[in-house]
Amino acid sequence: MGSTSTRVVAMAARQEAAKEETPRAEDYLEAVYHLAEERGFATISDISSRLNVKPPTVSDMVTRLAGKGYLKHERYRGMTLTREGERLARSVIKRHSVISEFLAMLGVDDPIAYEDTEGIEHHVHPATLRRIEKAAEYLQKNPGALKALRKYIDSG
With b meaning 16 or more CB within 10 Å and e meaning fewer, what string describes 73-100? Predict the structure, then answer.
């Protein structure tokens, strides 16, 4: 099996394992990941502000995610992701990045691209994501092709 196939299979296995998580749970893990990168930890208040969710709702989700082994939460001290939580958060971030970059290359306006990315990132199949990623790589390496594609798209 080639390295591309190996990556796709590994990504499919990771996504299969994460299927039990809802898009909202993935958003929480992604938020904790970014906050931990910025500050070393995340708090209920931080997540509440970042996701525009009330603190009791955040507290409920944090309890659930900690119970599933995705994060460690010390009351009054904040939380960090476990290895599994970080792996899942990185997977979501990767999906987000690939889709967002591809939509930007197609010329989708930022607010629309953001909204679409938020919806697509939680539901895209690993094989589809890999094809989107490869298409984006091709277009980056072939600016003439990107220009022609954008011209075709923009022509209506």
Answer: beeeebbbbbeebbebbebbbebbebbb
